[in-house]
Amino acid sequence: MSEDLGFRRLLFLATGALGTAFLPSWIALLKQSYDCEIRLAITAGAKKFVTPTALSAISGNPVSGPGWQEDQSAGAEHLLLAEWSEVVIVFPASLDFCARIAHGLSDDIPTAVVATTEAPVVVAPSAGGASLNKAQSKWMIHRLREHGHHVLDTVSGMSVTTGRLEEGSPVPFAKLLQTLWRLGAVSPNSSTDRVKRAKEKG
Ligand SMILES: Cc1cc2nc3c(=O)[nH]c(=O)nc-3n(C[C@H](O)[C@H](O)[C@H](O)COP(=O)(O)O)c2cc1C
To answer: What's the whole-model pTM score?
Structure first.
């Protein structure tokens, strides 16, 4: 039986961090284990690590981005996605993507979704080495939190490229799930039975 995650409509934004190469497996796992629907929008950088074909086959939905299709007659793609989402997840988030949303840019579909959605946005940065210790990175993370985004602290983890233990890895997927579960319990966006039952109880 599928478990209740706390959110039913999950939008993943895929960015140009190396861990995006593993995203198809996480999406497959989520779909098998939880009662949820998953959509994805990808940045230009994400295409280095994952293909829209794999993501659409695994998620069972068309993949948006980086830019807009010519035909927007059904409505602007980023607005439809922003409205559809109960939660928006950037896992893992490149620093470039974090910087763009910290500045409020909306020059591709993923950033435009973040700029417009009412849903909670969970950001799990992947920094690589000590780059998060730089003043500009600290400013950026602070800014994202000021915007109300849920930014998860990076952890030290085994680098898949160097094999060494390094700072700046994104949180493990299990930790991301814990965050979603916790947020789902309090988010007015959530439509799952667990949240409905909790609201009925008062
Ligand atoms: C092998 C490889 C791994 C990378 N991993 C990361 C990473 O973990 N975090 C990051 O901020 N940038 C990483 N980058 C750099 C980004 O891909 C680059 O900044 C890109 O412009 C980000 O694009 P986006 O805004 O579409 O995410 C990596 C690049 C390469 C080639």
So the answer is: 0.94
Q: If you take atom 8 of ligand 1, which residue's CA is the nearest one? A: 17
Q: What is the pLDDT at residue 1?
A: 54
Overall fold of domain 9-201: Rossmann fold (3.40.50)
3-state helix, strand, coil in the chain (%, to 5): 45, 20, 35
Quick one: tokens of 10?
A: 């999950």
Q: How far is the CA of 179 from the centre of ligand 1 (A)?
A: 24
Weakly modelled stretches of the chain, pLDDT under 70: 1, 129-130, 193-199, 202
pLDDT at res. 165: 86
The tens digit of pLDDT for each residue in 121-138 reads: 999 999 876 688 889 999
Could you identify the residue written with the tokens 């060494």?
164
Give DSSP secondary structure letters for 7-40: -SEEEEEE-SSGGGGGHHHHHHHHHHHBS-EEEE
Domain layout of the chain by residue ranges: 9-201
Closest ligand 1 atom to the C-alpha of 44?
A: 26
Site to substitute for ligand 1 among 22, 49, 94, most atoms within 8 A of C-beta: 94
From residue 148, how far is each of 38, 53, 65, 102 by CA, in Å?
Answer: 23, 32, 24, 11
